[in-house]
Every structure is written in C-alpha cells, then in structure tokens.
Design brief:
Length: 182
C-alpha cells in the first residue's frame, strides 16, 4: 500500500529548488579543475609550518595557505591553538583606515615611519613582561596568511623594517586582519 503525498506547496517547492541549486554549486566546486589540482595537505604538515619560524620552510604549504581559502581557514584555526600571542581584528574594523597600533593581552604592535628612509616603516612589537619571545609573525586577512620571520627580541621588544609598499605592512595595518606571534 502506498501513501498519497500530494503535490508540494509553493514554499516547499521553492525550498527544494534552492537546496538543489546549492548542491549543484557544491558539486561543481568540488569537481572543478582548480579543486582537483590543489594537492592535499595534512594537519601535521600545517602544524609543522606554523611551528617553524622560517617562511621558506615549506613553499608548497605557504602557497596553499596564501591561495586556497579552505587551507587558509584550517591554518588560521591551527594558529589560534598553537600561537601564544594573538591580536584579533582591531576594534576600528568598521573603518577603512589603516591602524597605527594593535594591542592585546599586554602586548602591543606599533608602526613608526623611518626618519632615515621615508619609504620604510618600523614595526615595533612590545611584549608583555614574561612573554616568550616570538620567532615568527603570521598576519591573516580574508583567509590569506603571510608569514614573517622575526629578529630576536631585545628587552621585550622586537623591531624590524618593512617597505611602505610591502603587502605584509598593509596587512598588519588592516583593521580586519588578525595577527599571531609564535
């Protein structure tokens, strides 16, 4: 014996069509040449990249983190677990202006223009007392992550120069970016 389910109402039919379109879009994305070309990367390899201060340690992982949104999102989740120092999006994220400093957990990042070379900016990281000195900086914005090796800390301060045109400096000053020190 079979039950007569009748015809669906307009709302149910519209929902079914919407779900079908979403499933078709997902299938197309998963079977696209770009998705097939991306090499798989293990969580262990992402963690190893996060723990090694050398930005050139694994160029394949660096490229994937910079270009693949899924890998970038996974890597950011790993950084939140393994990086002892975290600067969330700035409170001024609602504005489009570049920020002059970041502060979180007793730590601070400031940006000072170089007086000797106007085309460069000092990035000054002031660590909270007793904080472990970081060896690498990760800046994440729009699921893209950049990694910079840091010079040794001196007296709780890490200082280095970046060219004003450097994308890493723009990312560090972007209020919508997150910064991790490891």
């Amino acid at each position: 014996m079979s039950a007569d389910l009748g015809n669906p109402d307009d709302a149910t039919l519209a929902l079914a069509r919407r779900v079908h379109r979403l499933l078709e879009g997902t299938r197309a994305a998963l079977t696209s040449p770009a998705a097939a070309a991306a090499p798989p990367v293990s969580v262990r390899r992402l963690i190893a990249y996060a723990e090694n201060p050398d930005p050139a340690a694994d160029p394949v992982v660096a490229d994937l983190i910079a270009q693949d949104e899924r890998v970038g999102r996974d890597f950011r989740a790993i950084l939140k677990r393994v990086a002892p120092i975290y600067f969330p999006m700035a409170a001024a994220a609602a504005t489009a202006e570049l920020i002059a400093e970041r502060a979180a957990g007793g730590h601070r990042i400031r940006f000072e223009p170089s007086r000797a070379e106007p085309a460069q900016t000092y990035v000054i990281i002031e660590l909270a007392p007793g904080a472990p000195p970081p060896e690498a900086l990760f800046v994440c914005r729009a699921f893209r992550t950049r990694k910079l090796a840091l010079p040794p800390a001196r007296g709780g301060i890490v200082q280095f120069l970046l060219a004003n045109a450097d994308e890493s400096l723009a990312a560090l000053r972007d209020p919508e970016a997150e910064v991790f020190l490891r």
